[in-house]
Amino acid sequence: MKKIALITGASRGIGAQIAKTFAQNNYTVIINYNSSQKLAENVVAEIIGFGGEALAIKADVANKNEVEKMFQTIIKIFGHLDVLVNNAGISLNKLLIDCEEEDFDKIISINLKGTFLASKYALKSMISQQSGCIVNISSFWGQTGGANEALYSASKAGVIGLTKAMAKEYALCNIRVNAVSAGVIKTQMNDEYGENFYEEIKQQIPTEKIGCPQDVADAVLFLVSKQANYITGQILNVNGGILI
Ligand code: NAP
Description:
This protein has about 240 residues and is α/β, with parallel strands linked by helices. The protein contains 9 helices and 7 strands, in the order βαβαβαβαβααβαααβ. The chain has one domain: 3-Layer(aba) Sandwich (Rossmann fold).
């Protein structure tokens, strides 16, 4: 029987690649999205095109009612959930003194509260089945702090704290919780900074390579695999050495 994986924010970028990678590895994947319905449907079509199984569900991860409804739909259709990947996220490139309260509320709501909400509902199902894996997508900025990225850094540091605490709380329920802390990955999130951004930041990366979504997807797949059976509460750096 195929395992069921929910990937939040899987309409493009890292989330879409995680979804495709899981589908190629015998998972039925649920593609969560908020506003990019067409892109999410394209990811589903691509997966079905190569013989995989996928379903798109809209839910704003920052909205409790929408997240709860998404989980009700998943349990109704599939009966259980094996893997949750908390990937949905936004960035914000602003000096702290220019950030407004609304900026704080928005980025914390999506990046941190969204991880909390999806985990809460996934855990309900995972605890009753006494198995499951959660992987949260954090960032090296959450470990080292980024100038112009204070609120983003805080949200991703929060994700790391949540990961470690959840790992301790649910270890005895046979549920493993880990995070991938990604470096600079070529996606729409960074594309807006222009081609110079990648050239400049490459100088700071020991491998002199920008990461790609597949680099993150492979790490997530490893963390949910049986090869990672004794790994919980860990933050796996996938960053080309930009933070060691
Ligand atoms: P991206 O290309 O901008 O994709 C972001 C995804 O999140 C989209 O699918 C988007 O879907 C979804 N999303 C945004 N707000 C949402 C919400 N409220 N509810 C549900 N889905 C939502 O970004 P990415 O680079 O792939 O980033 C994916 C994750 O990796 C993020 O958590 C990011 O912080 C993290 N990360 C990225 C990098 C990097 O260099 N790219 C580095 C470290 C960590 P909709 O358009 O449908 O809303």
